[in-house]
């Protein structure tokens, strides 16, 4: 028998329901020894939520089940399998149908054996596990909100400050980098330097960026810094510092909120934020901060006014620097007095000059001429197969992918609902007391209503997308040959045809270009 153990631990576990990875392994080994069995392998997901089923070790175990390397899985309790009721029941059903077994050592009715099916409340157990993680989520949100409201919660790190060793909810000035913050504001408001110039001066002085500074601190403490390290100062770092009121001694909390379990956080309106002035020691005076804001707003207003008659750049979003890989930004290149030509420059070259990139500038007309010539050669070379290749408008294609995703979710929900109803029937048939049956009915009614409403919402989304998509899909199908002929006949290329045909255009310092199409001809020929 190929018996394996699965262990999982996450922040969902509190002290009342806590079992370390080692403790879980020991329980599984003890059970295996009592049955004269060996544990072939342990699959371990450490600090991974049970609410999601996309887990590294879990996925590896599923692959091994498929290939026949696993016959029986042993876990400490059902919550180790998962805390999503529907997904857990679907997994149990699929596992049982495949002839594999699951042993749960600490279940409400004792040891649970999937193939023996002696537990008549498994549906309630999985429901409780999901309810538990939702309750924990609500409690955590409530606790965080309470701390935010009182000004005690400090999220993340603030370059220039450290947490007070005596009270982790308070900030004290970090004397090692305080001078960097002061220097940035001084250059901006007193010397009149822009973000790019400030970056250059900081780099020349060898001042560490926030991520580099934190990585060095972690190393000194014998820890591993897991975030990306940016060794040189960039403009977004300067903007973040100049925009941040934290340096005036003001703490602002409740700026973001997570709407659902494991969901993404969203910015909240300013009126929902909590402000705490004189919360900690200032690095920058309020007057200096307001002056910096006034300068920034005046610059932004000028940029906005300059952009009112903004030039439309044909290759915007499609053109990249072949030397450093950065985007190339559309701009008017000055060639003589009062004469400006539409062209593109590497972002790194614009901001930092030749010290970061040597690509420089290129004219838009030059790219158009080169692209049309490329298309002529390309058409001549592959003319026999181009008339059979369809290109579909990206908008339609994305909507089709979204519909497929919705259909997958709909089918998964249908499967979960079917298994849920079957499990309810099983649980009810094994109960004799009216009170127990009523309890089971109440539990399953909430779960069924939730899934049925989700199904209705998905069906409505699919119908709405299909209605809007029919005409676009019919009008947008073109062969590659149609597109190429249209470009060659006119000697021009418009934005619509460009997006249908081209994925990226790379420009090199010798002004040569490399065109990447949306289709892979070599793959089509070899298929």
Brief sketch in words of this structure:
This protein has 527 residues and is α/β, with parallel strands linked by helices.
Number of strands: 19
According to CATH, the fold-level topology of the largest domain is Hect, E3 ligase catalytic domain fold
The biggest sheet, with number of strands, parallel, antiparallel or mixed sense and barrel status, is: 5 strands, mixed
Low-confidence stretches: 14-18, 392-396, 471-476
CATH class category name of the largest domain: Alpha Beta
Indicate the structural class.
alpha/beta
Q: Percent of residues in helical segments? A: 40-55%
- The total tally of domains equals 3
Evaluate the radius of gyration.
Answer: 31 Å
User: Can you name the CATH architecture of the largest domain?
Assistant: Alpha-Beta Complex
Can you describe what's shown?
The protein has 527 residues and is α/β, with parallel strands linked by helices. It folds into three domains: 143 residues, Resolvase, N-terminal catalytic domain (Rossmann fold, 3-Layer(aba) Sandwich); 151 residues, Hect, E3 ligase catalytic domain fold (Alpha-Beta Complex); 84 residues. The chain contains 17 helices and 19 strands. β4 and β5 form a beta hairpin. The longest helix has 43 residues. It is extended and about 95 Å long. About 3% of the residues have low confidence.
């Amino acid at each position: 028998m190929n018996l394996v153990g699965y262990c999982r631990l996450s922040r969902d576990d509190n002290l009342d329901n806590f079992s370390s990875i080692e403790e879980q392994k020991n329980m599984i080994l003890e059970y295996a020894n009592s049955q004269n069995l060996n544990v072939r392998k342990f699959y371990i997901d450490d600090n991974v939520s049970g609410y999601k089923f996309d887990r590294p070790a879990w996925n590896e175990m599923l692959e091994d089940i498929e290939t026949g390397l696993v016959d029986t899985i042993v876990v400490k309790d059902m919550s180790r399998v998962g805390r999503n009721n529907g997904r857990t029941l679907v997994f149990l059903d699929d596992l049982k149908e495949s002839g594999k077994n699951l042993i749960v050592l600490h279940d409400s009715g004792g040891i649970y054996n999937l193939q023996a099916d002696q537990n008549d409340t498994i549906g309630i157990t999985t429901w409780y596990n999901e309810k538990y993680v939702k309750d924990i989520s609500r409690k955590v949100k409530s606790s965080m909100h309470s701390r935010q409201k009182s000004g005690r919660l400090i999220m993340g790190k603030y370059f220039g400050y450290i947490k007070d060793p005596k009270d982790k909810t308070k900030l004290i000035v970090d004397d090692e980098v305080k001078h960097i913050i002061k220097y940035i504001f001084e250059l901006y408001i007193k010397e009149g330097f822009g973000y790019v110039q400030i970056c250059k001066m900081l780099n020349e002085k060898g001042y560490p960026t926030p991520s580099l500074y934190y990585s060095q601190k972690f190393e000194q403490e014998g820890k591993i810094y897991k975030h990306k390290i940016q060794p040189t100062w960039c403009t977004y770092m300067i903007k973040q510092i100049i925009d941040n009121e934290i340096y005036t001694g003001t703490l602002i909390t409740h700026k973001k909120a997570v709407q659902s379990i494991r969901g993404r956080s969203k910015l909240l309106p300013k009126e929902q934020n909590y402000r705490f002035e004189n919360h900690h020691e200032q690095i920058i005076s309020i007057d200096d901060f307001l002056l910096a804001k006034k300068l920034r707003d005046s610059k932004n207003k000028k940029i906005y006014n300059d952009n009112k008659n903004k030039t439309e750049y044909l290759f915007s979003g499609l053109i990249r620097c072949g030397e450093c890989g950065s985007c190339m930004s559309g701009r008017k290149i000055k060639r003589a007095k009062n004469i400006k030509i539409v062209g593109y420059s590497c972002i790194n070259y614009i901001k930092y000059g030749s010290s970061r990139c040597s690509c420089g500038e290129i004219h838009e007309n030059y790219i158009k001429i080169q692209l049309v010539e490329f298309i002529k050669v390309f058409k001549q070379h592959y003319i026999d197969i181009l008339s059979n290749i369809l290109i579909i408008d990206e908008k339609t294609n994305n909507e089709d992918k979204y519909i497929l995703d919705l259909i997958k979710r709909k089918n998964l929900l249908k499967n979960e609902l079917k298994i849920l109803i079957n499990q309810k029937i099983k649980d009810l048939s094994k109960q004799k007391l009216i009170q127990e049956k009523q309890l089971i009915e109440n539990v399953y009614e909430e779960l069924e209503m939730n899934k049925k409403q989700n199904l209705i919402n998905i069906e409505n989304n699919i119908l709405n997308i299909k209605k809007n998509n029919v005409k676009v899909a019919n009008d947008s199908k073109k062969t590659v040959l149609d597109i190429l002929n249209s470009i060659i006949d006119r000697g021009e290329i418009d934005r619509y045809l460009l997006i249908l045909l081209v994925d990226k255009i790379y420009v090199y310092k010798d002004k040569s270009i490399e065109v990447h199409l949306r289709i892979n001809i070599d793959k089509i020929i070899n298929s």
